[in-house]
Sequence to fold (189 residues):
Amino acid sequence: MLFTKTTVSRDAGDLGTRLETELRNHKGKYIFQGMIFIMGGVLAAAMPAATALNAELLLGAILLLTGIFQLVLTIKSRMHWWSMMSSLLSICIGIFMLWKPFPVLLAFVTLLALFMTVEGICEFLLALQFRPLRNWSWMLFSGIITLTLAAVLWIGFPAFDIMYLGWVIAANLLLYGFSLLMLVWKIAS
Fold:
């Protein structure tokens, strides 16, 4: 099936209409979500070292708890040995992250750089999907900034310390929250 220019532009128009309807019908939820991201970003910027350390400790606790839960289920259901190995690995890494948080932060910076690279690409692609809407460029801007922050982490590692890690998390939260508000702002008015 061949797509003509008219078909493609009509499909983009239909997508734009559907997205506007979604944003208009649920604008309160998007505004609330944007404000939560912005408040989280402000808190993270105010306490960057605590943000970085707490993010790492939270991840360690999550790995430990999910590993224990997975191990119990694996033993009860008599699953394969690889499932048990996976749960034991999760438990061990979780314990190590909680026991030695500062050395793990260096590895965490690398993981954050990887995450932000993928997230920036996803935000960029999401912005292209929102292109039929007014203010779609704010999502594009957020994706570009996220990719830039990821690049700074990649280039500067390990020169940047825990403070920078907290500021990167803060900037990411603030920009995403602001981009959500800007998407809804023109639609709601």
User: Anything to note?
Assistant: The radius of gyration is 21 Å. The longest helix spans residues 48-77. Helices lie at 5-25, 27-46, 48-77, 81-99, 101-129, 137-156, 162-188. Residues 1-8 have pLDDT under 50 and may be disordered.
